[in-house]
Design goal:
Length: about 180
């Protein structure tokens, strides 16, 4: 498996992976899959805002992707990112999500970010909860029944982990 920065040539596969999750799961609260142009705009926005977007390739196929985007737009949040990880259903359970997120965490730390937030759809999303727990995230809260999708109420779970020195020192300018 190769992990590399996402480029426009990966967008067809990225859009298909995400569409599958939107249509079949409750990890995303979107109910209509964004089209190719919207996903291209999202990739551009994440990169332009200083975020990170990676793909995992098996041979030449995109097996999954992960991006770290600014948590919120206000300046005080500039050292905090939010992660998103999606794996092609044919490759689930093979460690691809963990490898992607580990790689993204290393890049974020090298660039000087200090906190990483996971906003996880569904308290029953044991795979995502376990992935984040295994990489040092801690539960910081659960918002009960804030989404309604596929005929059911869905929670949002918030997890967080420090990056680098976290809040133990003052930050330096981001790289």
């Amino acid at each position: 498996m190769e992990i590399t920065s996402a480029i426009p040539e990966h967008l067809v596969a990225i859009q298909q992976i995400y569409a599958w999750h939107v249509n079949n799961g409750i990890a995303s609260f979107e109910t209509v899959p964004p089209d190719h142009e919207e996903m291209a705009a999202r990739l551009t926005k994440v990169i332009a805002s200083g975020g990170i977007w990676l793909v995992a390739l098996r041979d030449t196929q995109v097996a999954g992707y992960c991006y770290l985007a600014p948590y919120r737009p206000r300046y005080a949040y500039r050292y905090t990112l939010e992660d998103s990880v999606y794996v092609h259903p044919d490759f689930s359970g093979q460690g691809i999500g963990k490898a992607l997120l580990q790689h993204a965490i290393r890049l974020a730390e090298m660039r000087g970010f200090r906190q990483l937030i996971a906003v996880i759809g569904n308290s029953e999303n044991h795979a995502s909860l376990g992935l984040h727990r295994s990489l040092g995230f801690e539960l910081t809260g659960v918002m009960k029944s804030v989404g309604f999708k596929h005929g059911r109420w869905v929670d949002t779970v918030i997890m967080q982990r420090a990056l680098g020195a976290g809040s133990t020192t003052f930050p330096e300018p981001l790289r």
